[in-house]
Automatic annotation (TrEMBL), chain A:
Higher taxonomy: Bacteria, Bacillati, Actinomycetota, Actinomycetes, Micrococcales
Protein name: Tripartite tricarboxylate transporter TctA
Keyword terms of this UniProt record: Membrane, Transmembrane, Transmembrane helix
PANTHER family tied to this protein: TRICARBOXYLIC TRANSPORT PROTEIN
Pfam families: TctA
UniProt keyword annotation of Transmembrane helix present: yes
InterPro entries: DUF112_TM
Organism of origin: Arthrobacter liuii
Transmembrane segments: 20-39, 45-69, 109-136, 142-162, 169-186, 206-226, 318-341, 353-377, 389-407, 413-443, 464-486
Chain segments annotated as coiled-coil in the UniProt record: none
Annotated ranges, domain DUF112: 21-438
Keyword Protease: no
Automatic annotation (TrEMBL), chain B:
Transmembrane segments: 12-29, 49-69, 100-124, 136-163
Record organism: Arthrobacter liuii
Top-level taxon: Bacteria
Domain DUF1468 stretches: 17-159
Record's keyword annotation contains Membrane: yes
Record key words, sorted: Membrane, Transmembrane, Transmembrane helix
The keyword Metal-binding appears for this protein: no
Protein name as annotated: Membrane protein
InterPro entries reported in the protein's UniProt record: DUF1468
Length: 529, 167
């Protein structure tokens, strides 16, 4: 079946009145929760998971599509009006966006962000629809050795490439893998790390883990350091753009999309790098470089488009390979498994209608965002004024409710608290949370592929190198792991080049404002839930 | 002794290394305790991966301890409502955790409406709100709303507990 007719079938499913209503609810809920400070897209999806339990999978995923894009869009509203972005991917948007808002151009900043998100999201989703089946075609020919290698690559790349401290990234990954071990071993039925506790035999529910690390950890962390005088949110009216703003925005939207999608689709993608690249490019190409740092509309349009295109790109490996590369995709993948749907390249054949309905509803959700959010922006801005005690008490309340409603057992709440304390500690000591979540989700699947591989080779470790693709991926893994050492050697042998090495020229180019923010992105590595 | 204490001061991050090390030992001991006959269909067995994970945790623990002793520091995470200028406010955290634990203890016996009210009310007060009555009313309303919302909308019956028959 070709892409076009499958997609049309998807639209037919997604546009039934009931499913369309779920898309609308998803977009509104996603934006409302995403706008709230401290709540990024991944936490939004994790907190809203229980709401979808009563639905059949197709409707649930249609709602997810809305929540996903809604949460993304909500986050950019927060960063423009409050200046302290919730997600690392919105850091760059905040630089110019908040300056524009302060200069009385909040309406234009929100408008270019919303329309740019729509343009980038639509192109990104179209690319997803075209690329995913191609990736699948390639992926079905792969065997266990290659899958094992790809998953190891994704884990290591996310841990080693993003973030300032690789050591802390690996510590977080180790904890995640350990959490993933809890429960019955799928092959032999042996109980691992259950400590005789029968409730642990089925393993830790991934929803409980995600909600604990993201929501509870975050609420406790903010509570400990709550700002006594909340930041001032800039009031805003109906977003709109003049002819001149359109003229200055459309090219950055397209360029941002071109940066965002490929980076999102890579195993170590993420939206930080493309948003930053887009910012630097727009600054260099702008006819008004003097406005950068004072609120240039190109500096909002480009990065925001890159951010949304990356979000669509992320779904390519998620749907085609079952490989999540950011926190939001990880939580969505967890949702797939909780519906008994096996992620992986078979997904397109075994659950074809569902996948295409999901992709179709991404288009619909994107469109809904545009027509719902432009008029509703003033209302979203009001949400930023929500008194903080209610906000964080509410996060704890709904986190508890969500975790409890999965299995209706109080024991899950104990786990929620313990892992919430772990999440608190990780934030305190700069351990990134993304490697932990990916470790929990991918750990058991990596183990499965490893065992399958060695089973096929009758225990011979050479079986791991049994496919050329696997060998190629191990070379890439080697390069990623050895790169910092090679770099150090290179610097040592040529000390003159040292100060100008690496990303420094780029950063200087982008000016001081970005420089400090850029560093913040890489040092914190906070893929905020 | 004094040099040791000054050396340890401000190095609370060593606790993270300790935790990693302890987790590693735990994973190792647990896997070591598994009894599995060698099987041809599963040459890897259930022990291999835990051993690798345990090893990884131990290596990270040691490297992190060295890193911290050499002056390395993990950067605390910022955010919209986070102000890292003041020290951690345990007077907020502890009551908050208290409300959470109370909810765990009460939820199955007293039911969600009561325990959820306590959770939200306790949390709001812990976080510094001083509108006791208004907060109480909001808490009750939220709990009732979610109870009926989950029951009627999602078909999930949260425990009614003490209020069984009334709700």
């Amino acid at each position: 079946m070709d892409v076009w007719s499958s997609l049309m079938d998807g639209f037919a499913t997604a546009l039934t009145p009931m499913n369309f209503m779920y898309a609308v609810i998803g977009v509104i809920l996603g934006t409302a929760v995403g706008v709230l400070p401290g709540l990024g897209p991944a936490m939004t999806v994790a907190l809203l998971l229980p709401v979808t339990y009563a639905l059949e999978p197709t409707s649930a995923f249609i709602m997810f599509a809305g929540i996903y894009y809604g949460g993304m869009y909500g986050g950019s509203t927060t960063s423009i009006l409050l200046n302290t972005p919730g997600e690392s991917s919105s850091v760059v948007t905040a630089i110019e966006g908040n300056k524009m808002a302060k200069a009385g151009r909040a309406a234009q900043a929100l408008a270019t962000a919303a329309i740019g998100s729509f343009v980038a999201g639509t192109i990104g989703t179209a690319l997803l629809a075209v690329c995913a089946p191609i990736v699948v075609k390639f992926a079905v020919s792969l065997g266990a050795p290659s899958y094992f290698a790809i998953m190891v690559l994704a884990l290591l790349a996310v841990t080693a490439v993003l973030g300032s401290s690789r050591l802390r990234g690996f510590a977080s990954l180790g904890l995640g893998l350990a959490i993933g071990l809890v429960g019955m071993d799928s092959v032999t039925g042996q109980r691992r790390l259950t400590f005789g506790q029968p409730l642990l035999a089925d393993g830790l529910d991934i929803v409980v883990v995600a909600v604990a690390i993201f929501a509870v950890g975050e609420a406790l962390w903010v509570a400990a350091y709550l700002r006594r005088t909340p930041l001032h949110a800039i009031p805003v009216g109906q977003p709109w753009m003049g002819k001149f703003d359109w003229k200055r925005s459309w090219m950055p939207w397209l360029r941002g999309t071109a940066f965002g999608f490929p980076f999102g689709a890579l195993p170590a993608g993420g939206a930080e790098i493309p948003t930053f690249l887009s910012y630097v490019t727009e600054k260099r190409l702008s006819k008004h470089p003097e406005e950068f740092g004072k609120g240039a509309i190109e500096g909002v349009a480009g990065p925001e488009a890159a951010n949304n295109a990356a979000a669509a790109g992320t779904l390519t490996p998620m749907l085609a390979l079952g490989l999540p590369t950011n926190a939001t995709a990880a939580v969505m993948l967890a949702a797939f498994t909780s519906y008994g749907i096996q992620p992986g390249p078979q997904l397109f054949t075994s659950q074809g209608p569902l996948v295409w309905a999901l992709i179709a509803s991404l288009f619909i959700g994107n469109f809904l965002l545009l027509i719902i959010n432009l008029p509703l922006a003033p209302m979203w801005a009001k949400l930023l004024q929500l008194p903080r005690p209610y906000l964080y008490a509410g996060i704890l309340f709904f986190a508890t409710l969500g975790a409890y409603s999965v299995n209706l057992q109080a024991f899950d709440l104990v786990i929620l608290l313990v892992l919430g304390a772990l999440g608190f500690m990780m934030r305190r000591f700069g351990l990134p949370v993304l490697p932990l979540i990916l470790g929990v989700i991918l750990g058991p699947r990596i183990e499965g592929q490893l065992r399958k591989t060695l089973q096929l080779s009758a225990g011979d470790p050479a079986g791991l190198l049994g496919e050329p693709i696997a060998v190629g991926i191990y070379v890439i893994i080697g390069l990623i792991l050895l790169w910092p050492f090679a770099y150090k050697l290179f610097r040592r042998s040529r000390p003159v080049a040292a100060p100008a090495g690496g990303a420094a020229p780029l950063a200087t180019e982008a000016g001081d404002a970005v420089h400090s923010n850029h560093n913040a992105v890489y040092t914190n590595h906070k893929e905020r839930p | 002794m004094t040099s040791l204490t000054t050396g340890l001061k401000g190095r609370s991050e060593l606790g993270v290394a300790l935790l990693l090390g302890a987790a590693g030992v735990l994973v190792f001991l647990d896997a070591n305790g598994l009894v599995t006959p060698y099987s041809k269909s599963d040459p890897v067995g259930p022990k291999t991966v835990p051993f690798i994970v345990a090893g990884m945790l131990e290596v990270c623990a040691v490297l992190l301890a060295l890193n911290v002793l050499r002056g390395g520091k993990g950067e605390a995470e910022g955010g919209e409502d986070v102000d890292l200028a003041h020290p951690a406010d345990w007077k907020t955290i502890l009551p908050l955790a208290g409300a959470f634990i109370l909810n765990i203890l009460l939820i199955d016996w007293a039911g969600w409406v009561i325990s959820g009210t306590i959770l939200f009310w306790g949390s709001v007060l812990a976080l510094g709100s001083r509108h006791y009555v208004r907060d109480g009313l909001i808490s009750v309303a939220l709990s009732l709303l979610t109870f009926y919302g989950f029951y009627l909308g999602l078909g999930i019956a949260l425990p009614a507990g003490l209020l069984e028959g009334i709700l």
